[in-house]
Automatic annotation (TrEMBL):
Protein known as: 5'-3' exonuclease
Alphabetical list of Pfam families matching this protein: 5_3_exonuc, 5_3_exonuc_N
Keywords, sorted A to Z: DNA-binding, Exonuclease, Hydrolase, Nuclease
Gene3D superfamilies: 5' to 3' exonuclease, C-terminal subdomain (1.10.150.20), 5'-nuclease (3.40.50.1010)
Stored CDD domains: H3TH_53EXO (cd09898), PIN_53EXO (cd09859)
UniProt organism field: Salinispora tropica (strain ATCC BAA-916 / DSM 44818 / JCM 13857 / NBRC 105044 / CNB-440)
UniProt keyword ATP-binding present: no
A GO term, aspect molecular function: DNA binding
Residues annotated as domain 5'-3' exonuclease: 13-277
Role this protein plays: 5'-3' exonuclease acting preferentially on double-stranded DNA.
Gene Ontology BP, a term: DNA replication, Okazaki fragment processing
């Protein structure tokens, strides 16, 4: 995937929309627990790593607005009703998402630190962080940079509105700054058709089976030829559509899945959200509380790096 890291001179600073769960999960698994603990021995590796990621993003991208999106519902019932396999492998025996025991207590601490800094966080009942990000990307003035390691968010890229994906699948230090050409180069489909492509290909990490026997190249060819899954399904009813017999058999067998998969994969763009402050502060909103949190949890270094990044933005 091509990396386009330079923003054109003279362009306004972006709104940075952060997929918080994507980043703090990566931070948790990227930093050993033993390397970051509070005075009582509780791991704070996800917190420290997450704060350092934000500091790096702010230093290098220099946004003037930021919102961190949260998962208030990691597996929405409306998606499960359409496709019961959706994230089913990640459901804990007692219900809820399988999350490491030492990560769960760190999420409220992340929220506390962000609140003391004055960085807005938001989630919505019945929706994933992806849906919050999608809605903000189409309702907030651009330019917009969405930060995530989730491939599904390639569908949000929109050159006309100035929406890019800063894909951190290989880490923040190696982020790929993706416009539509980058998505096309990597997957062979435009960003606007990524959801159809992903539904055909499938994604085991989300419990999306895809069409058995249809990989990325075939999925891209189908989207290129028929436009979207609705076009593929319509073509199945045309004996002259030119499908190879084996491919027609595979697609026909997956017709029921294909009828619902695009809705499951597509990010919602109409999540009901309150009016949100988006301005990124130059100084902490509550410095006393931030200092108390930093000292209580041995986070002074990470907090200082983030505060310095915020201040340097206005230099």
């Amino acid at each position: 995937m091509s990396v386009r890291c330079a923003r054109l001179s003279g362009m306004p600073a972006p709104l940075m929309l952060v997929d918080a769960p994507s980043l703090y999960f990566r931070a948790y698994f990227g930093i050993p627990e033993s390397a970051a603990v509070g005075p009582d021995g509780q791991p704070v590796n996800a917190v420290r790593g997450f704060l350092d990621m934000l500091a790096s993003l702010i230093r290098t991208r220099r946004p003037d607005r930021m919102v961190c999106a949260m998962d208030h519902d990691w597996r929405p019932e409306w998606r499960v009703a359409l496709l019961p396999s959706y994230k089913a492998h990640r459901v804990a025996p007692e219900g809820g998402e399988v999350v490491p025991d030492t990560l769960s207590p760190q999420v409220p601490l992340i929220l506390d630190v962000l609140d003391a800094l004055g960085i807005t966080t938001v989630g919505a009942t019945g929706y994933e962080a992806d849906d919050v990000l999608g809605t903000l990307s189409v309702t907030q003035p651009g330019p917009v940079e969405v930060v995530s390691g989730d491939r599904d968010l390639f569908q949000l890229v929109d050159d006309a509105r100035g929406v890019r994906l800063l894909y951190v699948g290989r880490g923040v230090a190696k982020l790929a700054d993706c416009d539509d050409a980058a998505v096309q180069a990597r997957y062979g489909v435009p960003a606007a058709r990524y959801a159809d492509f992903a539904a055909l290909r499938g994604d085991p990490s989300d419990g999306l089976p895809g069409v058995p026997g249809v990989g990325e190249k075939t999925a891209a060819r189908l989207v290129d030829r028929h436009g979207d899954i609705a076009g593929v399904l319509a073509a199945l009813d045309d004996p002259d559509a030119g499908f190879a017999p084996g491919l027609r058999t595979k697609l026909t067998a997956a017709r029921d899945y294909l009828a619902v998969a695009p809705t499951v994969v597509r990010v919602a763009l109409d999540v009901p959200l309150p009016a949100l402050p988006t301005d990124l502060p130059a100084t902490p909103a509550d410095p006393d509380r931030l200092l108390e949190l930093a000292e209580r949890w041995n986070l002074a270094g990470a907090v200082r790096r983030l505060v310095d990044a915020l201040a340097a933005r206005t230099d």
